[in-house]
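Standup notes
- DV: blocked on the single-chain target, sequence here:
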Amino acid sequence: MDNDRIDQIIDKHQGKASSLIQVLLEIQSENHWLPKEALERVSEKLQVPLTRIRHITTFYKAFSLVPKGRHEIHICMGTACHIRGATHVLDTVQDLTGIRPGETDMDLKFSLETVNCLGCCALGPVMVVGGKYHGKIAPTEAEEALKNYE
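- DV (later): unblocked, structure below
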């Protein structure tokens, strides 16, 4: 991500330091992670110490300081999903993508994460790919769902 695009995002928020989290979220949304150079630019433009930005980006799980795939896969491992077979869905996704939770594949196509709850327990097991929810998903359906992502 180039500095001009980072500046546009900052300008959209009137260059206010109080918009720091929104700025970081937008940068990450477009870039799929927060490179050090982007954090340095945000620090400079918003006049927020880089140490404060690093504290925020390491505190919130929503932020990533390492490259993420174009499509993030989240599999709920909460109680309702777990007892309905979420571990089988996770095993299938791991086999298909070759990655484990917390990892990103070499092509930067997929990143895999497990979560404790997605807030839709009645639909368990639940898998979210790129923001799209797949409820009551069976392992074979997980395979079909992943085929739709390039």
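- Follow-up: The first helix runs from residue 3 to 12.
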